[in-house]
Structure formats: structure tokens, C-alpha cells
Design goal:
Order of helices and strands: HHHHEEHHH
Structural class: mainly alpha
Largest sheet: 2 strands, antiparallel
Number of strands: 2
Distance between the termini: 20 Å
Radius of gyration: 21 Å
Helix content: 55-70%
Strand content: under 5%
Length: about 140
């Protein structure tokens, strides 16, 4: 399971770097760059996330990945006093990107997924696991292959 989670993030990073030239292109508007990010990169990273439980390490990695993508979209800013180009801090990124962050998207997808399961028939295995009524016995020992 951990390999799958890491590969999702790795695939998202590969996708981000493949469209990095497009995201750093100055003639495109920031709204268009954000739409590219939310329609191309985020679905790759978030595929299947509603079924996984997030650990603190994974949350941190997702936050770092999201902030890296946003820095690529918004670019550096020029310091008013010294005139040097500096990297945007996380607080400044949050102020510029006031849309949903990645954790709100994951939580909303989890709620949608749980709602779908709650409306399933009682004989479905996923519904029984959610409700907590699995049937049958588990045999002792190592499972046979």
C-alpha cells in the first residue's frame, strides 16, 4: 500500500515537471495555470485517496508537493527593498491561492465515497465493512495460497 501511495506522488511530480515549461510561461494567466494544475496534476496525485487513511508523513509530503506546484505557478516575487527575487513563503502562497487546498479536496472525496457506500445494498461486502457487520469466520493460521 505504501508503494502505491508513493508512486501516486511520484507520478504527480513527474507530471508537474512535464508541464513545468507551460506553468512558468509568462503569457498564460494565473487562472489558466491553476486550472491546468487542478485538471492534470491533482487527479493523478489524488486517484484513490478517498480509500486510504493519511498519516502525518503523507500529509506533509502532499503539502510539500502542492506548495512546490503553486510556487511553479506563481513564480518568485521581487523584494521591494532590495530588488532581489525571493521564493514565496507558505503563508504567501495560501494568501494567493485562496481556493481549496489538497486536504479539503481529499476530505470532500472521502465524504462522497462514504455516502455512496451508505446507499449500497446490505449484501455488499464494502457496506458490511463500513457498518461493521462482516459475516463468516476467519480460519486460524497462515492463509493458503
Amino acid at each position: 500500500m505504501k508503494k502505491l501511495r508513493k508512486s501516486r506522488l511520484k507520478s504527480g511530480n513527474i507530471c508537474h515537471y512535464s508541464v513545468q515549461n507551460l506553468l512558468s510561461f509568462s503569457l498564460l494567466s494565473i487562472n489558466l495555470k491553476i486550472k491546468i494544475n487542478s485538471t492534470i496534476i491533482l487527479p493523478i496525485v489524488l486517484f484513490g485517496r478517498e480509500t486510504w487513511s493519511l498519516t502525518l508523513r503523507e500529509e506533509r509530503r502532499l503539502r510539500v508537493s502542492e506548495n512546490r506546484g503553486l510556487r511553479g505557478i506563481f513564480g518568485p516575487k521581487r523584494d521591494e527593498v532590495t530588488g532581489e527575487w525571493i521564493k514565496l513563503h507558505n503563508e504567501e502562497l495560501n494568501d494567493l491561492y485562496f481556493s481549496h487546498n489538497i486536504f479539503r479536496v481529499i476530505k470532500s472525496r472521502i465524504m462522497i465515497w462514504v455516502g455512496r457506500i451508505a446507499h449500497m445494498e446490505e449484501r455488499r461486502f464494502v457496506y458490511r465493512v463500513l457498518v461493521g457487520k462482516p459475516e463468516g469466520k476467519r480460519t486460524l493460521g497462515k492463509p493458503r495460497v
